[in-house]
From TrEMBL:
<comment type="similarity">
    <text>Belongs to the YicC/YloC family.</text>
</comment>
<dbReference type="InterPro" id="IPR005229">
    <property type="entry name" value="YicC/YloC-like"/>
</dbReference>
<dbReference type="GO" id="GO:0016787">
    <property type="term" value="F:hydrolase activity"/>
</dbReference>
<dbReference type="GO" id="GO:0004521">
    <property type="term" value="F:RNA endonuclease activity"/>
</dbReference>
<dbReference type="InterPro" id="IPR013551">
    <property type="entry name" value="YicC-like_C"/>
</dbReference>
<keyword id="KW-0540">Nuclease</keyword>
<dbReference type="Pfam" id="PF08340">
    <property type="entry name" value="YicC-like_C"/>
</dbReference>
<feature type="domain" description="Endoribonuclease YicC-like N-terminal">
    <location>
        <begin position="2"/>
        <end position="156"/>
    </location>
</feature>
<keyword id="KW-0378">Hydrolase</keyword>
<dbReference type="InterPro" id="IPR013527">
    <property type="entry name" value="YicC-like_N"/>
</dbReference>
<feature type="domain" description="Endoribonuclease YicC-like C-terminal">
    <location>
        <begin position="174"/>
        <end position="292"/>
    </location>
</feature>
<protein>
    <recommendedName>
        <fullName>Stress-induced protein</fullName>
    </recommendedName>
</protein>
<dbReference type="Pfam" id="PF03755">
    <property type="entry name" value="YicC-like_N"/>
</dbReference>
<keyword id="KW-0255">Endonuclease</keyword>
Amino acid sequence: MIRSMTGYGKKDGTSQKAGVTVEIRSVNHRFLEVAVRLPRSLAQLEDQVRKTVQQRCLRGRVDVSVSVHSAGGSLKTVQIDQALAKQYHTALKKLQKTLGLRGAVDVSTLAGFRDILSVSDEPVDAGQLTKTVLRVLGGALTDLEKMRRREGEALAKDLVLHLDAIREAKSTVAEKAPVLAKNAFERMKGRIESLLQAELPDPARLQQELAVFADRSDISEELVRLESHMLQFDQQLHSKESVGKTLEFLLQEMGREVNTIGSKANDADIAALVVRMKAELEKLREQVQNVE
């Protein structure tokens, strides 16, 4: 079954004290475009993440966001430079005594000096974190694929409805087609006789020319090709491969046949049916833009 290019997937995982969240969003795009956002500490994984996505998505704009956060513990540690704190304390007490200042040199005073207190990242096993990120990425991609398949099933049902509408109109045209050439022949013959108002010159040659003209009004070949394209379109809807571009091509060919039918068949009823088929083709084109 076809897949939509629109989808969303999200997964969480843990690695020691680190929590990992991967979010993936995809929308329609002519080709496959993958955008990856990673924490600076995981920048080296960008190519690997992109290749993993490319193995499972064939078309669409895919945005991957990876975040690392605390999982129950803390990824930060506070460090205190006690020796420096003692020097600050001694210097401040001396200054207080020298200037005769009131107050106390307490912890809150010392905490205001940034070089006494510092916060740093707690070391994390890089190899383990990498495995976790890739594992969680795989889960998010699975969720994305499930949603794209569900959207694809809905798309397929809608496409079939529009295809059936075209097939119904085409069947009505096919019922009228056999008499088109005959009517064109008789209509043109009547016009010529009316213009000449006399015995026709070289009747055999005239009959031959009228037959050629009538043959140009024959739309049987176009109807056969249109039906062939519709059958192929229907078959592609059940494919597991990426068929979006194939469906776009088939719609282009179907449009070509419908236009030819409209130009060759000089008939008001068929002209109305052609307009209906063109409207359904346009709806198909809009929907196919979302097919992977």
